[in-house]
Design brief:
This protein is mainly alpha-helical and about 375 residues long. Helices cover about 75% and strands about 5% of the residues. The chain has 2 domains: about 280 residues, ABC transporter involved in vitamin B12 uptake, BtuC; about 90 residues, Arc Repressor Mutant, subunit A (Orthogonal Bundle).
Length: about 375
C-alpha cells in the first residue's frame, strides 16, 4: 500500500471510531434518528458559513455546521415540548425544512462551488489528496488531521465526563439531584454528535454517516449493556468494519465501488451476524433456548403423567394415546429419560424410578416458582 492508500484507510478508521462512540450514546438515549436530522441540516450551516467567508477550506464552515446541528436539536425539542407533536413528527418536520433551505441556497447562489457534491456518498476516495500545509510543509491529509483531532477531543470529553454521561443517560432525575446539570450534558452530547457528523460529512456523506454511527453501536449493545464495554466494543467494530470495507472495495472490486458505501454494507452484515450469533440473546441462542425449553416442558409433561397418576406402569401405546404424541416424539423422550435413570423398562412396560420421581418434584418446584 502506498502513502495515499494508507492515509485513506486511516481516515476511514478514525471516522468510523468517532461515529461509533457517539452512536452508543444516541442508541442508549433512543435518539438514533437524530443523527439523520443533524447529518442533513449541517449542510445549511456549511452554506451559511461559506456565504460569509467565501472559502471552502475555512474552519468557520466547521463551526457553522456544528452550530446548525445543535440548533436542529433545539428546534426539534421545542416542538416536542409543546406536547402536540411527537419526536419523530418534529424530526420529520425540522430537518427537511433546513435541508431544503440549504439546497435552495446552493442551487440559486452557490451552484458553482460544489457544496453538495458529496452530500450522499462522501469523498473518501479523494479525501487523502487534500494536504494540510504548515509553515510551507505538507504534513498529511487535512481530513485525517481534522478527523483525528475531533476523535481525540471526543475521547477526552468522554473520559473526563464519563460519570456524568452515564448517570444522565440512565437516570436524568438522579443527575439533576446530584447537581450534574443534565441539560448541559445533553447539549454537550448533541454538540459532540454534530461535530462528529460535520467532520464525517466530507468523507462518508450525510446519509452514510447515520449507518456508521448507529451500526457498530447497536451491534455492541446487543453484546453488552455495560457502557464502558459498549464504547470500546463499538470503536473496535467500527475500525474492523472500516478496514474490511476498504479492502473489499479496493481489492475485491478493484476500486470500482464507493468505499464509504462498502463500509456501510459491511457494517450491516456485522450487525446481522451479531444479531444472529450473539451467544446469549442472538437468534441462534434464542431458537436453541426455546427448543430446550420445549424439551423440558415435554419432559415435565411425561414425568408428571408418570408420577401423578395412580397407575405407575404404562405401555408404549398407552403413553402415545394419553399424551397425544407421535411415536418418534415419545421414543426420543423415553430414550433420554431412561439414559438419565428416570425411567426404566420392566416386563415390556415403562416404570418411573425413585430417581425419576425425585427429579419430577424438583422440576415441578422450579416451574411453579417461575409461574
Amino acid at each position: 500500500m502506498n502513502a495515499l492508500a494508507i492515509s485513506t484507510l486511516l481516515i476511514a478508521i478514525v471516522v468510523s471510531i468517532s461515529c461509533a462512540l457517539m452512536g452508543v450514546f444516541l442508541v442508549l438515549r433512543r435518539m438514533s434518528m437524530m443523527v439523520d436530522a443533524i447529518s442533513h441540516t449541517v449542510l445549511l450551516g456549511i452554506v451559511l458559513a461559506y456565504s460569509i467567508v467565501l472559502d471552502l477550506s475555512s474552519p468557520w464552515l466547521l463551526v457553522g455546521a456544528t452550530i446548525m446541528g445543535v440548533l436542529t436539536v433545539v428546534l426539534i425539542e421545542l416542538l416536542v415540548s409543546t406536547k402536540r407533536v411527537s419526536e419523530d413528527g418534529a424530526t420529520g418536520t425540522v430537518f427537511p425544512l433546513l435541508f431544503s433551505i440549504a439546497v435552495i441556497l446552493i442551487t440559486t447562489r452557490f451552484s458553482s462551488t460544489h457544496l453538495d457534491t458529496h452530500a450522499i456518498s462522501g469523498n473518501l476516495e479523494f479525501a487523502a489528496f487534500e494536504q494540510l500545509t504548515l509553515f510551507g510543509y505538507e504534513i498529511g491529509s487535512k481530513t485525517l488531521w481534522t478527523s483525528g483531532i475531533v476523535l481525540l477531543v471526543l475521547i477526552l470529553i468522554i473520559v473526563v465526563l464519563y460519570k456524568e454521561f452515564k448517570i444522565t443517560i440512565f437516570d436524568s432525575a438522579l443527575a439533576k439531584t446530584l447537581g450534574m446539570a443534565p441539560l448541559f450534558i445533553h447539549y454537550l452530547m448533541m454538540t459532540m454528535v454534530s461535530l462528529t457528523a460535520v467532520t464525517s460529512f466530507n468523507a462518508v456523506g450525510a446519509i452514510l454517516v447515520v449507518a456508521m454511527m448507529i451500526g457498530p453501536a447497536a451491534s455492541s449493545l446487543l453484546i453488552t449493556k455495560r457502557l464502558s464495554t459498549a464504547l470500546i466494543l463499538a470503536a473496535l467494530l467500527g475500525a474492523v468494519n472500516a478496514t474490511v470495507g476498504y479492502f473489499v472495495a479496493m481489492v475485491v472490486f478493484g476500486g470500482m465501488v464507493n468505499i464509504a458505501s462498502t463500509i456501510t454494507v459491511v457494517t450491516f452484515i456485522t450487525f446481522m451476524l451479531v444479531w444472529i450469533l450473539e451467544p446469549n440473546k442472538g437468534l441462534v441462542a434464542m431458537i436453541r433456548r426455546r427448543r430446550l425449553q420445549r424439551n423440558d416442558i415435554e419432559s415435565l409433561a411425561l414425568m408428571t403423567h408418570m408420577a401423578s397418576h395412580e397407575v405407575s406402569v404404562y405401555s408404549h401405546d398407552d403413553l402415545i394415546q394419553q399424551l397425544n404424541w407421535s411415536s418418534s416424539q415419545l421414543r426420543n423422550h423415553l430414550h433420554k429419560e431412561m439414559k438419565r435413570g428416570f425411567l426404566t423398562f420392566e416386563n415390556d412396560t415403562i416404570v418411573i424410578t425413585q430417581k425419576g420421581y425425585e427429579h419430577y418434584q424438583v422440576l415441578l418446584k422450579e416451574y411453579s416458582n417461575e409461574v
